[in-house]
Amino acid sequence: YAEALKEFEKIKDTDFQAMYQLGVMYYDGLGTEKDPERGVEYMNKILNSDSPEARHLKFAAAYNLGRAYYEGCGVKHSTEEAERLWLTAADDGNPKASVKAQSTLGMLYSMPALKDLEKAFFWHSEACKNGNLESQGVLGIMYLYGQGTCQNTKAALKHLRKAAELGNIYAQGHLVEYYYTRKFYLKAASLAKRVTENDDIDMLAKITDCHPAYIAEGVAMAAFYLARCFQLGQG
C-alpha cells in the first residue's frame, strides 16, 4: 500500500482514478495514517468535477461521501446528507451506478431513524437485481415475514436459498431457523453444522462483501438452533 500511495500521489492531479484510490486509502488508513478529511476532499473533487474523465467515478465517490457523513468521519455526521448522497450514487437502480449504495439504502430505510420498509424493499430489490448478495438474503427475510411487501414463502425461500448457496451466512442462519421451526430438524442441524464452521468473520466479509455484524448474527443463529437440535436428540 505504501508504494502505491507514493505512485498515486505523483499523478493525482492528472489522473482521477489515482485521486479516487488516494481518497479511499486516506479515509481507511491503507498504507498511511488515517486522514479522513483528505479522503473526503478527494471524493468531493471527483463528484464536483466537470471533466469527462471523472464521470465514471462519480457514483463511487458519492457512495463514499455518503459513508463519511453517516459515520461522521472527516465531516460532521448527517444522516440526511448521507441519504442524499447515497440516492445520487444509487441512481434509481441503474446497474452501472453504485450497487453498494442501493443495498445500503435498503439497510438505511430499515433503521429506526428513517424507517420505511417499502423503500427498503424497493432498494434491496434493485440491488439484488444488480447482483448484490447481501440484499438477496435480506429480500428473502422481507418476503418471509411480509416486511415492506406481501408475505410470500415461495419467494422467500427462493431468495434465501440462492443467497445461501452463494455464501451469505445471514441467509444460511435464517434458513436454519426456518427448517427448525417447521420441525425439519435433520435439515436444520445439517446446515447449522456447516454454518458454525465459519470462524473468520472478517475474511468472510471481504469474500462476500456482506457486513460482519450480519455474518456474526447468522453464525449465532445457526449455533443456537444446532444446540436445540442436540437437546432434542436430532442431528
Keywords:
elongated; mainly alpha; single chain; 235 residues; 13 helices
Written account of the structure:
The protein has 235 residues and is mostly helical. It has a domain at 167-235. Helix content is 69%, strand content 0%. The chain contains 13 helices and no strands. Helix 1 (2-11) crosses helix 2 (16-28) and helix 10 (169-181) runs antiparallel to helix 11. The longest helix is centred in the last third of the chain and has 20 residues, at 212-231. The N and C termini lie far apart (47 Å).
Structural class: mainly alpha
Distance between the termini: 47 Å
Radius of gyration (CA) equals: 20 Å
Q: What summary fits the major beta sheet?
A: none
Nearest-integer average pLDDT: 95
Strand content range: under 5%
The low-pLDDT segments are: none
Helix content: 55-70%
Number of helices: 13
Strand elements, count? 0
Overall form = elongated
Question: What's the topology here?
Answer:
Blueprint: H1 2-11, H2 16-28, H3 36-48, H4 58-71, H5 79-90, H6 99-108, H7 117-129, H8 133-145, H9 153-165, H10 169-181, H11 185-195, H12 201-208, H13 212-231
In short:
It contains 13 helices and no strands. The protein has about 240 residues and is mostly helical.
